[in-house]
Design a protein that fits this description.
Order of helices and strands: HHH
Distance between the termini: 73 Å
């Protein structure tokens, strides 16, 4: 039972601290100064080089 108690204590204290630090690190990374340009570029990357809507493939197969 001692192994269980040790792992339980480890999970209750250190794992909670680690996950909290990871969460805060992600939030700081997202809202860091100068990150707006990279985030905007990533958000608009799916529209890059798009000049017209995709063609409908079902109509091409019927021809």
């Amino acid at each position: 039972m001692e192994t269980y108690s040790f792992l339980r204590t480890l999970a209750d204290s250190w794992a909670l601290l680690l996950l909290t630090l990871v969460f805060v690190g992600v939030i700081v990374f997202v809202f860091r100064p100068g990150g707006r340009r990279a985030q905007k570029d990533a958000a608009e990357s799916i529209f890059r080089n798009e000049t017209r809507p995709a063609r409908d493939r079902t109509n091409e197969e019927d021809r």
